[in-house]
Amino acid sequence: MTKFLERIGSYLEGRLRISGLLEFGRKKKVPEHKHSFWYYFGGLCLFLFFIQVATGILLLLYYVPSIDTAHESIRFIMSQVKFGWLIRSVHSWTANILIGTIFIHMFSAFFLKAYRPPRELTWVSGFFLLLIFLAFGFSGYLLPWNELAFFATRVGTDIAGTIPLVGQTIKEFLLGGPEVSGATLSRFFWLHVAVLPALALAFIGLHVLLVQLHGMSKPIGLRETKEISFYPYFFLKDAQVWMVVLALIGILCVFFPWEIGTKADPFAPTPVGIKPEWYFTFVFTTLKIVPPHILTIEGEVLAILAFLLGAFLWMLVPFLDRRASRDEKSPVLSVLGFIIIVYMVAMTLLTYLLPQVGR
Amino acid sequence: MSQRQISRSSAVPLATRAGRLRSTKTGSPLASALLFLALVSILPASLPAQKNSCLDCHRELEDKLRAPAEAMAGDIHGQFGLSCADCHGGNPLEEDMERAKDRSFKGVPPRTRIPEFCGACHADAAFMRRFNPNLRIDQLNLYWTSQHGQLLKKGDDKVATCTDCHGVHGIHAASFPKSWTFAWNIPQTCGRCHSDRDYMRPYGLPADQVEEYKASVHAQALYEKKDLSAPVCNDCHGNHGAAPPEVSSVAFVCRQCHPSAGDLFSRSPHRAAFDGLGISECEACHGNHRVLRPSDDMLAGGSQDVCLRCHDAETNPYRVGKEIKRLVDAFVVSYENAEALLSAAEKKGVEVSPAKFKLQEANTAIIHLRNLTHTLSISEVEAKLKDGDMVLAEVKASGQRALEEARFRRTGLIVATVFLLLLAVAISIKLRDLRRSSGPEEQT
Question: Three-state DSSP class for B353?
Answer without folding.
Answer: helix
